[in-house]
Inverse folding.
C-alpha cells in the first residue's frame, strides 16, 4: 500500500492492572450488566527499549493507560523467555488487571501467556504473535507481509532489477523476521537477473548489522543493494558501507520507521523505510484491554489484527511525525 494517507492513526488505550485484591472478572460488569469503571495497575512488557521502536511501544502504552485512569509500569524481556516468565510472575504478584506483552518468542512465550491466564489476568499481545490462538485476548501486529511487499517494490526502484544483493535477517525466534523475508523473496524473485548472494542473521541489532555487513561485503564486494528486516540492522549496514567507501554504490532499504531511519532518508543514506504503526496498535491494545476489563469483551470480532504499514521515502518523509506516525 504505497499511499500513506489512507492509514488511520487510531487512538486507544493500552493495558491495566488492579492494585487492590479484587479480581479482574469482578470489575468487568456491574449488577445491571453495563459497563463498570476499571482501574489498577497495567503491566507492559516490551522487548528492548534501547531500540526506539520498542521504546515507543512501551511509552505509548504507558501514557494511554494512565490517560484512562490506570497505573502502569514498563519492563523489558530483552527477548529472553526466562526473563519474560519472571516478569509475568511479578505481574501476577502485583495483581495486574491486564498485561500488554510483546512476546519474546513465538513458541516460547506460549507458556507465559498460559501462566497469566491461570491467574485470571487477560493478556494483549502487540507487535509479535505467538504460535497458538485462543490464549491472548487479542494479538495486534503490523501487516508484515504487506509491508515487506511495498518495501521490496521500492527497493527495486532504488537498486534496479538486476545485479547482486544481500539480506540482513532479524531474530529467527520472531515470526516477523520470516514473514518479512518471505515477502521480500516473493517480490524479488520475479526478477531473474537479480541474485541474492548472501544472507545473514543480525537479530534486529545495529551493531550486529554493522558486523555482518562487513563480512558480507568482504565476501561479495560487487553487491548493489542490501535489503534489511529492520531499520537498526539497515543503519548498521550503512555504517559499515560508509567505512568501506561503498555507500555511494550500494543502496539500503529498512523497515520500522524509526527516527534514525527518517534522518538517514533525509540525509540520502537510506533509500526508504516501511513504517510499522506501533503507536497505533499500542493504543488500540490499551483500548481493547480497557473494554475487556469494563465489559468482558474487547470490542473487536477477531483475536489477530493486522495493521497496514506505510512506505516512507524522500518524497513523503516530511510528513513523518515522531514517534512512528505520519500525518493522516
Amino acid at each position: 500500500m504505497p499511499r500513506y494517507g489512507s492509514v488511520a492513526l487510531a487512538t486507544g488505550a493500552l493495558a491495566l492492572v488492579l492494585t487492590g485484591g479484587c479480581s479482574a472478572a469482578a470489575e468487568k460488569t456491574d449488577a445491571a450488566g453495563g459497563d463498570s469503571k476499571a482501574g489498577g495497575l497495567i503491566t507492559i512488557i516490551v522487548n528492548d527499549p534501547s531500540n526506539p521502536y520498542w521504546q515507543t511501544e512501551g511509552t505509548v502504552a504507558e501514557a494511554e493507560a494512565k490517560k484512562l485512569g490506570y497505573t502502569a509500569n514498563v519492563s523489558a524481556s530483552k527477548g529472553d523467555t526466562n526473563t519474560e516468565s519472571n516478569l509475568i510472575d511479578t505481574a501476577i504478584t502485583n495483581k495486574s488487571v491486564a498485561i500488554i506483552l510483546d512476546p519474546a518468542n513465538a513458541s516460547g512465550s506460549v507458556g507465559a501467556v498460559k501462566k497469566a491466564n491461570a491467574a485470571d489476568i487477560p493478556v494483549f499481545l502487540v507487535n509479535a504473535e505467538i504460535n497458538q490462538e485462543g490464549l491472548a485476548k487479542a494479538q495486534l501486529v503490523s501487516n508484515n507481509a504487506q509491508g515487506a511487499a511495498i518495501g521490496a517494490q521500492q527497493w527495486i526502484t532504488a537498486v534496479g532489477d538486476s545485479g547482486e544483493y544481500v539480506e540482513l535477517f532479524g531474530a529467527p525466534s520472531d515470526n516477523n523476521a520470516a514473514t518479512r523475508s518471505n515477502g521480500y523473496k516473493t517480490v524479488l524473485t520475479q526478477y531473474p537477473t537479480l541474485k541474492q548472494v548472501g544472507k545473514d542473521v543480525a537479530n534486529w541489532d545495529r551493531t550486529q548489522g554493522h558486523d555482518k555487513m562487513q563480512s558480507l561485503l568482504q565476501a561479495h564486494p560487487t553487491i548493489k543493494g542490501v535489503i534489511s528486516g529492520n531499520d537498526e540492522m539497515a543503519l548498521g549496514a550503512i555504517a559499515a558501507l560508509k567505512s568501506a567507501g561503498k555507500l555511494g554504490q550500494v543502496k539500503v532499504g529498512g523497515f520500522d520507521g524509526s527516527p534514525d531511519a527518517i534522518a538517514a532518508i533525509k540525509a540520502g543514506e537510506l533509500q526508504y523505510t516501511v513504517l510499522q504503526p506501533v503507536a497505533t496498535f499500542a493504543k488500540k491494545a490499551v483500548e481493547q484491554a480497557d473494554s475487556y476489563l469494563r465489559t468482558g469483551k474487547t470490542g473487536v470480532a477477531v483475536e489477530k489484527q493486522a495493521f497496514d504499514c506505510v512506505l516512507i521515502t524522500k518524497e513523503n518523509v516530511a510528513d513523518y511525525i515522531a514517534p512512528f506516525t505520519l500525518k493522516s
